[in-house]
Amino acid sequence: MGRARTTDDEKLYKIGEVCKLADVQPYVLRYWETEFPQLAPNKSGGGQRLYTRREIDTILRIKELLYKEGFTIAGAKKKLEQEVSEPPVAPAAVVSPSAAAASAHAPDLSKVKQELRALLELLSD
User: Fold this and answer.
1) Up-side HSE of residue 124: CA atoms within 13 Å toward CB?
2) Which of 31, 29, 28 is closest to 13 using CA atoms?
3) What's the CATH class of domain 13-124?
4) Element spanning 43, H or E
5) Neighbouring C-alpha atoms within 13 Å toward the C-beta of 119
6) Using CA atoms, how far apart are residues 70 and 25, in angstroms rounded to an integer?
7) Which one, of 69, 71, 1, lies nearest residue 32 by Cα?
8) Which end of the chain is more exposed for a tag (fewer CB within 10 A), N or C?
9) How confident is the model over 59-65, as a mean pLDDT?
10) Using only C-alpha atoms, what is the Rg of the chain?
11) What distance in Å separates the CA atoms of residue 114 and residue 106, rounded to the nearest whole number?
12) Closest by alpha carbon to 100, among 88, 84, 112, 111?
């Protein structure tokens, strides 16, 4: 039969691919790796950095915090740590089933929006 498929979460991306997706230079990614412990790409036998989808999402978030929201490196580091450590907040009021279903998909929609923005940036080059 066919070979086993890998999911997007399992796929590894080379630094050049990540630079295109995030629209940043390789030296920027290497610097961010020294500042953000969440970024720790694996390295191939030849020393090539290999990033996971989760690391790419983190890179896009770091870029957003630094370039769009105006955070400093230290501020972005704290914000990322807060976002990772904060459990989702349960609503205080009773929520209708349709509203609960919509809010359950909100993180998925946010991820889709990020990926679409990254693709749009790639296509606009």
Assistant:
1) 9
2) 29
3) mainly alpha
4) strand 42-43
5) 6
6) 19
7) 71
8) N
9) 96
10) 17
11) 12
12) 88
